[in-house]
């Protein structure tokens, strides 16, 4: 019921000829909005992967140092 009332008000305000244009511009705006958020998410994910890779290599370096300091029997 409410949708019909909203449609009637839009029809009175904008007229029948402008409603399709209004709908298509609204659809393209929503599409661009979603695309904008998708791009930011990809960049944030790439930065998080870089940070995770950097911390992984530093922990690998620590493991290598520990392995070098161990005696052949495995004791430190």
Structure, described:
InterPro entries: TatA/B/E (IPR003369), TatA/E (IPR006312). Residues 40-76 are annotated as: Disordered. One of its GO terms (cellular component) is TAT protein transport complex. One of its GO terms (molecular function) is protein transmembrane transporter activity. With 76 residues, the chain is mainly α. The chain has a domain at 11-37. It contains 2 helices and no strands. It has helices at residues 2-14, 19-69.
Q: State the end-to-end distance.
A: 78 Å
| Mean pLDDT figure | 75
Uncertain segments of ≥5 residues (pLDDT<50)?
A: none
Shape summary: rod-shaped
Total beta strand runs? 0
Percent of sequence in beta strands: under 5%
Compute the number of helices. Answer: 2
How are helices and strands ordered from N to C? HH
Helix content: over 70%
Task: Give a quick set of tags describing it.
rod-shaped; 76 residues; cell membrane; TatA/E; mainly alpha
Question: Could you give the topology of this structure?
Answer:
Layout: H1 2-14, H2 19-69
Summary, kept brief:
The protein is mainly α and 76 residues long. The protein contains 2 helices and no strands. The mean pLDDT is 75.
